[in-house]
Amino acid sequence: MAKISFTSPAPTLNFGIIGNCKSAALINEDSSIDWCCLPQFDSPSVFGKVIDENIGGHFKIECDTSYHITQTYIKNTAILCTRFENDDNAFEVLDFMPRFQKDNGSYHAPPELSRILRHVKGKPSCRIIYNPKLEYALGETKSYVKKNFIVSIVDDVNYDTLFLYSNLDYEAILAGTEMSITGEHFMTISYNEKLNAPSLENSLLTFEKTKVYWLNWCHKTPSFKNYNEQILRSAMTLKLLTFEKTGAVLAAATTSLPETIGEVRNWDYRFCWIRDASMVIKVIAKLGHVQIVKNFIRYIIDLIPDKNEKLQIMYGISGEKILTEKTLDHLDGFKGSKPVRVGNAAYVQKQNDIYGILMDVIHYQMEQFSDKKDEYEELWSIVKSIVWVVKNNWKLADKGIWEFRHEDRHFTFSKLLCWVAVDRAIKISTLVNAEKSVEKWETLRDEIYDDIMEHAWSETKQAFTQSYHSEHLDASVLLMEYYGFIDAKNPKFVKTVKAIESELMHEGLLYRYKNEDDFGLPSSSFTVCTFWFINSLFKIGEEEKSKKLFDELLSYSNHLGLFSEDIDFSSKQLLGNFPQAYSHLALIDNALNFNETTTASKMPKPSLKLKVS
Q1: Rounded distance, CA 607 to CA 613, Å?
Q2: Which of 44, 354, 413, 608 is most buried when burial is the number of CB atoms within 10 A of its CB?
């Protein structure tokens, strides 16, 4: 990937992500760690400059203005390399969170972040700006030099500590004194005090083991003739958003990055939405990484102990069901966009589409391993329970995929996914030789289909609309073809694609809808919607136009090929929580379209014998 200068025009969210499937950190292209939560994704931040430039806290390597800064990932890894260079001097900063397989088969993924400074040429020098602010910067964080480490402590509303180990001078680090980079130096941030203090030798070994882990992971991902680099970076990003301990998949690594600068559409996305996660793991499974699928299915099974227990739309990454939302009023927000929220009140919403999305991924899992019927008794119980819930709820209004907070409607997408739930249940019943359920379920599936065709189609708009008897268009109905409800060449679907293009396309990007919601009119493009539109164009036969738009959209990523939730229509700046799982799964889906004729046959069929974690 081409290196981008720090002085070049860049999207607002010019960060790289590193992580180890326990937590993650965002590193600005100038080397500043501006976001990191420890010990896990949903913990309070220890560096939070991204949500308050003044008091949030950060950890930066700083040089004089003569240095040119470039940033790339080490090829086929999630290790970030930031290079500082002027005419005579150069050094690199290698950032990673340790992750590798131990001799017993488990994974070493401690709540740690490592920085290695590596001399390249000349006599480079820098200052270390080490400014942790624990517990979302609530209370005063104080740092002290001890014999073997720097300890940072906050003892106010909550008590917390953080430890920094290094072979650099601790007093110089805290004072921000200029120091020379003469060889290799390490700095390891640990949430826990280390019983055996890290050394340079140990840090370099951990670096090499983590590098090998990612190289192996990428090697198990099929390669493609077209867009291979983008597919691989997106796949690694999705992997980084998985919480290995439970199998949960996060929507994004951040909280409260605004959909539009200065507005209040700021949400905490460090949770597992059943919708987002199910779509992520289905895409990852297409790339052969089936262990992620199995982990997520186990996560779901553990969440539903009772046959009659209804699904929430989202859960905490450790399975929490209560996700109380509150605001952190002492923080200014990203570029002044208040409020900063932790928790998410949407967890209480009723969204009927989640049943179909979950059933779709269960069907995919069971279809791939249909010879393992004895392993799926728990899943079959969940399948029957979901059909029962759909049967009793599909006629009811809900909040819809976009989580309208103050109004229930009969959203077309919700009805569509109710149809998907029953359709996939019928297919699953065949896989497990339980066809006796099929007849009554077929009647229900047909009833939902007829209802959608009658009430969601607008003669005026010549399109399927956002909700029953509405004239508002919505990008989510583009998924009608994706889920097999309607054929791509069906005139009604083609007309819907054209109507959405005419009404929702703006400046090369798609509105998700243009009607007012709880916060007024949307003013940025929800990135995944443009990917959906590109996919729909491809499916209706406009492949050349689809590819042109896809290439254009890819150009709006940041310097590392990463996408957030939203894109500003005019400036093309990235907005919203980052990196966004939705955006990257849709990128992969789109890219696979342009590889159908050249590489699809080379993709390995997922195998239970292939251990990919």
Answers
A1: 13
A2: 413
pLDDT for residue 78 is more than 90: yes
- Strand 68-73, strand 80-85: pairing: antiparallel
How far apart are alpha carbons 245 and 297 in whole angstroms? 13
Amino acid (1-letter code) at residue 360: D
Q: What tokens were used for 195?
A: 């019983």
Q: What is the token pair recorded at 417?
A: 């996914």
DSSP state of 517: B
Q: What is the pLDDT of residue 307?
A: 60
Distance CA 93, CA 82 (A): 5
Determine the residue type at 17. I
Across the range 439-461, mean pLDDT stands at: 95
pLDDT at 599 over 70: no
Contact by Cβ (8 Å): 254, 560: no
Residue 83 makes CB contacts below 8 A (sequence gap 6+) with: 3, 69, 70, 71, 72, 90, 91, 92, 93, 120
What span, in angstroms and rounded, lies between the C-alpha atoms of 274 and 231? Answer: 23
Residue 118 pLDDT: 97
Q: Which two tokens stand for residue 302?
A: 């553990």
Q: Residue 88 is encoded by which pair of tokens?
A: 């005579």
pLDDT tens digits for 165-179? Answer: 999 999 999 999 999
Q: How far is CA 428 from CA 349, 362, 487, 507, in A?
A: 28, 8, 22, 43
How sure is the predictor about 9, in pLDDT bands with cuts at 50, 70 and 90? very low
The predicted model gives 511-523 an average pLDDT of 76
Q: What tokens were used for 583?
A: 């955006």
What per-residue confidence (pLDDT) applies to 606? 33
Distance CA 401, CA 413 (A): 7
Note the pLDDT of residue 530.
98
Amino acid present at 185: H
* Measured distance CA(238)–CA(293) in Å, rounded: 12
Query: Cα separation of 579 and 252, whole Å?
Result: 6
What sections of 250-311 are H helices per DSSP? 274-286, 290-303
Enter the tokens of residue 279.
Answer: 């779509």
Q: CA Rg, the chain, in Å?
A: 25
Closest CA to 534 of 457, 586, 489, 494: 586
| Rounded Cα gap, residues 202 and 112, in angstroms | 14
pLDDT at 249 over 70: yes
Q: What is the mean pLDDT of residues 43-69?
A: 97
DSSP, residue by residue, 235-247: HHHHHHTEETTTT
SS3 of residue 344 by DSSP: coil
- Mean pLDDT, the chain, rounded, equals 91
479/529 Cα distance (integer angstroms): 10
Question: For position 400, what pLDDT does the model report?
Answer: 84
